[in-house]
């Protein structure tokens, strides 16, 4: 007998950092396979208007992804004082979710915030929902504290190069986050931005980007989420 997947509904829970895109892509694959609607959820303790630039740009990217897919919907629960598991369970019940995708790294971060196991709490709150815990490798590392906290920045094209700027103008080509190297008076570091639905990281030297080729940053973690 062929299984009927018409009632399946997928919820992807994302936390800030590069792994959110991977989780969303995994959720999209499952949703497409099951012909199911996809929901993307993030939860934050702070009100939205108090979030820093780095968090806001991730949220904007997730919103754009949902808007570009007719079966996807983005949900943000900000200014939340309840345990994260209770918020996830509430959203799951309201949207009749049957499967939840949660990243291992995000789970670790949320468990630090809530002082408890999200998995155990979700199993108690919504025992009939399937949980998928995705092991996600961090591909940007900063164990030595080489970079300052990311700030919103923009790229303006100048000939064959791009200039880094912190002011929004009509000439900007890309918007993203700039991670400045610690201990330098110059704008040296890494610029992260979205190219289509791909997250890219490029080298910045004295405020100039000479090549938009994606850097291999497996040995650097600007989002140490353990």
Automatic annotation (TrEMBL):
Residues 8-127 form the UspA domain. GO terms for cellular component: plasma membrane. One of its GO terms (molecular function) is phosphorelay sensor kinase activity. Coiled coil: none annotated. InterPro entries: Histidine_kinase_KdpD, Rossmann-like_a/b/a_fold, UspA. PANTHER family: SENSOR PROTEIN KDPD. This is UspA domain-containing protein. It comes from Caldibacillus thermoamylovorans. The lineage of its organism: Bacteria, Bacillati, Bacillota, Bacilli, Bacillales.
């Amino acid at each position: 007998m062929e299984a009927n997947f018409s009632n399946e509904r997928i919820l992807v829970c994302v936390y800030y950092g590069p792994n959110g895109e991977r989780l969303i892509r995994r959720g999209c694959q499952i949703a497409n396979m099951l012909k199911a609607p996809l929901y993307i959820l993030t939860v934050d303790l702070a009100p939205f208007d108090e979030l820093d630039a780095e968090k806001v740009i991730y949220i904007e990217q997730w919103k754009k992804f949902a808007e570009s897919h007719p079966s996807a919907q983005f949900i943000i629960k900000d200014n939340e004082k309840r345990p994260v598991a209770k918020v996830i369970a509430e959203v799951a019940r309201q949207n009749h979710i049957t499967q939840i995708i949660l990243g291992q790294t995000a789970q670790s971060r949320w468990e630090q915030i809530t002082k408890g196991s999200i998995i155990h709490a979700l199993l108690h709150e919504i025992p009939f929902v399937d949980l998928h815990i995705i092991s996600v490798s961090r591909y940007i590392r900063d164990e030595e504290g080489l970079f300052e906290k990311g700030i919103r920045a923009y790229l303006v094209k100048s000939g064959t190069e791009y200039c880094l700027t912190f002011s929004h103008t009509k000439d900007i080509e890309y918007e993203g986050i700039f991670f400045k190297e610690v201990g330098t008076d110059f704008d040296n570091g890494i610029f992260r931005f979205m190219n289509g639905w791909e997250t890219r990281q490029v080298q910045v030297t004295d405020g100039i980007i000479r090549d938009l080729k994606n850097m291999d940053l497996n040995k650097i973690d600007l989002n140490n989420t353990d």
